Each structure stands twice: as C-alpha cells, then as structure tokens.
Amino acid sequence: MNWFRDNRRDSAFVALTVAVPVLLVLYLVFQLLGLRGGYQDEIDDLEPRVARLEGLRQREVDLQQSLSAVDGKVTNLVYPGERDRASVAATMQKDVREILIDAGLSVANSQILPDDSEEGFEEIRLDVTVSGNLPALDAALAGLGAYRPRLMIESLDIWPERATRRNSDPGQTVTAGMQLMALKVRS
Predict the structure, then answer these.
(1) Is the pLDDT of residue 132 over 70?
(2) Which SS3 state, helix, strand or coil, does residue 1 take?
(3) Cis peptide before 149 (omega within 30 of 0)
(4) 185 near 79, Cβ under 8 Å?
(5) How confident is the model at residue 164 (pLDDT cuts 50, 70, 90)?
(6) Are residues 48 and 100 in the same domain?
(7) What is the mean pLDDT of the chain?
(8) pTM score, two decimals?
(9) Do the Cβ atoms of 121 and 183 come closer than 8 Å?
(10) Could you give the number of structural domains in the chain?
(11) Is residue 167 part of a domain?
(12) Closest CA to 88 of 118, 135, 58, 122
C-alpha cells in the first residue's frame, strides 16, 4: 500500500487504465441488454399479427368459398372492369331513358356526369330530368330498382307542374330531377 501513497500520479494512471475498460465493458453490456429489450418488444408486437395470419391460413378454404360467393353477387351489382367507362355510361343512359319512357314519363334532359371516385370502383353518374304523372313516376322508380347492374338514386327532387288549360289530364303532373349512380369495377 505504500507504493500507492508514494506514487499517487502513477496509481491514478493505473486505476484509470483499469477503470476505462471496465466502464466500456459495462456500457457495452447495458447497450446489449437495451437492444435485447427492444427486439423483445418488437417480437411481442408481432405475435398477435402472426396469430391472426395463422388463423387466416387455417380458415383459408372457408374464406375462398365466401369470396367466390361474394364475387358472384358483386358481378350482378356492378359493371365489369373489362368495358370502358364511356361505353358503360352510354349504355346506362340509353337503358335508363328506355325505362323512364316505357313507364310513361317524358325525358327532358339526361346528362352523364364526370367521374370523381377514388376507391376501387368507378362511379358512373347520370343526371336526368323527367315529367309525367305520379303513377308513371312510381312505375319508373320500380323499373329503376329492378335494373341490373344496380342503379342507386343519389338524389330525387320532385315538384308539381302548374295546371294549364291545355293540360286536360285530371291527375297530378310532376317534374322530377334525379341523379343516378352505378358502379363499375376499376380495370
């Protein structure tokens, strides 16, 4: 012990030389333990996801059957993706006009509106103005409801027409403006 007291500068240098590697080893050990904890947290976060995927894999056959059943129903409700939007819109406009005229309404205006959809389907919109009596409007709405692929009425505005001397029809005559929409699968 005398040597340490007599050579203070050398003993401090020796202690520092021994302490630096020990501190570096301790620092490295704590860093490795911290990394291990981080990796363990990531593994714990992945376990529920892996369990969900394993459950999906076990139910794959059931999901495939359900998917094919849904695909069959969807093809009945939307226009196929193989057709271009312009031909689908023209066909829809022609069919809607025929339904409305067959129901006894007169079509004053029909216009294809631009597409503003962002999701997996293209929205084909049609703005139509018709006039006629209430039973004809009722028949037209029933015809539009039965049309396939599915037509959705986004808005329907109905207002009565003023009676004139020339109009000898005893029933109520109305003008209706409606906005129709159909979906088309994006190609």
Answers:
(1) yes
(2) coil
(3) yes
(4) yes
(5) low
(6) no
(7) 86
(8) 0.60
(9) yes
(10) 2
(11) yes
(12) 122
